[in-house]
Amino acid sequence: MIVGIAQFELFMPYNQSLKEKRRLLGKLKDRVLAQMKVVVSETAHQDLWQRAELGFAVVGGDEKTLDSLITRTMQMIVAMGIGEIDREERDMIHYE
Q1: How far is it, in rounded angstroms, from Cα 8 to Cα 43?
Q2: CA–CA separation, 96 vs 94, rounded Å?
Q3: What global pTM score does this model have?
Q4: Could you give the CA distance from residue 35 to residue 31 in angstroms, rounded to a whole number?
Q5: Domains located in the chain, CATH noted
C-alpha cells in the first residue's frame, strides 16, 4: 500500500474577509470532491484572510498512478483561479 500526500499553501490576494475565504475554500473543497473524489482539508492559517494551508492524501498500490492523481488535482485547483499556490510539498509513504 502506498499513501500519496500533498500539502500546499494557497495565497488569495483578493479576499477581503474570513467569510469570503471560507466561501471560496468551501467551493474548492466541494468541486475537488465531486470531480476528483479527493477530500481537501485546511491544515493551517485558519485565522488569515488571504492565506490557507491545505492538504490531501490518496491511497493506492502504484506510485505513478497516485502521483498522476495528485498532479491532476493540483492542476484543477490552480485552474479554479481562487488563488496562487505559493508552496507545494509531496510525499509517498510505502507500507508493507
Answers
A1: 10
A2: 7
A3: 0.91
A4: 6
A5: 2-94 (3.30.70.1120)
